[in-house]
Design a protein that fits this description.
Strand order of the largest sheet: 4-5-6-7-1-8-9
Largest sheet: 7 strands, mixed
Number of helices: 8
Mean pLDDT: 78
Structural class: alpha/beta
Oligomer: single chain
Low-confidence stretches: 7-30
Radius of gyration: 18 Å
Distance between the termini: 33 Å
Length: 202
């Protein structure tokens, strides 16, 4: 297992990782899950949005189950959605429309939705983008908990501070070219990373 990050400079460098798409489109394949904000329904409750994530493990499909055309699967989806909502700290807003949440809470909805599939690998595409400091801290705490459970996490992220505090192994890209790979300590000391990140000669 390798829990790490791909930190890119100069724009979005990674569109697909292996057989699963990045979080821009969302996909689940071979135990790999990438949450996607585009899959959410802002007028639906947090619980309903999270429960949608479990449809790939079911047989009836998300809309059929949530429209109560399959009562047994509906109960299973909602129970799993509630468990994952509570797990990521959304219990106090579980019945609110998802579209009314702050950005940081919406990111947690996306993660909870992905966790409904119980993936072996969780792919996250710039999860810290646009978040305030306390929202980043809450997200980082959740990711540490998931890592401690033995789940592999792959981050594609430009926020180097966020990356450095979370990962075991980092690959740094500059315009699609790998310029460094290693532990956070090795990346901090890399002349190539210093040049690319600070825009100065090492």
């Amino acid at each position: 297992r390798c829990t790490g990050a791909v930190a890119g400079f100069g724009g979005d460098q990674t569109r697909r990782v292996g057989c699963a798409a990045t979080a821009d489109t969302g996909a689940v394949a071979a135990g790999v899950t990438a949450p996607s904000g585009q899959d959410g329904q802002p007028e639906m409750s947090v619980l309903e949005n999270v429960a949608l994530g479990g449809h790939l493990a079911g047989k009836a499909g998300p809309l059929r189950a949530l429209m109560r055309l399959d009562r047994a699967e509906e109960r299973a989806l909602m129970a799993q959605g509630r468990r994952q909502s509570l797990r990521v700290g959304l219990g106090n807003v579980i019945d609110r429309p998802a579209g009314t949440l702050a950005l940081g809470q919406q990111r947690l909805v996306e993660v909870a939705r992905a966790l409904c599939n119980n993936p072996d690998v969780l792919l996250l595409d710039e999860p810290a983008a646009g978040l305030r400091l306390f929202e980043k801290q809450a997200l980082a705490a959740l990711l540490r908990e998931l890592r401690a459970e033995g789940r592999a996490i792959l981050l594609v992220e430009h926020d180097m501070g966020f990356v450095m505090e979370l990962t075991d192994h980092i690959i740094v890209l500059e315009f699609g070219r790998k310029i460094a790979e290693g532990t956070p300590e090795a990346i901090r000391a890399s002349p190539e990373v210093i040049r690319a990140y600070l825009g100065a000669e090492a």
